[in-house]
Known about the structure:
The chain is mainly beta. Helices cover 13% and strands 39% of the residues.
Amino acid sequence: MLRTVLLVIVLEATLGTVHADWTAVQRSHGITWDLQRNPLDITTTSAYGSNNEVLLEFWTTHSTLIGFIKIHFEEPFMFHMSYCVHTTFTTEPPGAVAKTWTIWKTEDFLIVECNEVEVLRYALLDDCKERWDVDGDVFLYFSTYDTASLQYRVGKIIP
C-alpha cells in the first residue's frame, strides 16, 4: 500500500495531475482549435535550461501547414513562431518549475502568458499576419518532438 501511494505521489510530481477539465497530451494526435475564440492552456514541469520544448503544429482543415509555435526551455527561454519571430520573452517567466502556459491570438497580436504573467505580446504584421490569419478552427498537433507539454485545456476567456 505504501509503495502504491509513493508511486502515485512520484508520478503526480513528475507528470502533473490530470484534472477533469484537463486532457493529457497525445503526441501527433490532432485536435481542432481556434486560438482567437479559445485560449490554449498547457501545463509543463520542465526545468529552466533543460532544453525541453513545447512544440505545437498548426494546419488548416485542408491539410496545409500554417506553421508552428515553440517554447524552448533553454537559457534564456526562447519563443519561435514560424514565419514570424524567434526571440526571448519580453518578461522572464516565473521561476516555478510547474508552469501553465496560455497562448491565444487576437486579430493583431499573439499573446503568451506563463502562470498568469504576460511574457510576450507579439504584433502580427505583414506576411506573418497573413500567414496566421485563419478564420475559425485549425488542426493543432502536439509534435512528436514536444518534450515538455503534459496537459491542455481551453483557457480562460479573454475580455
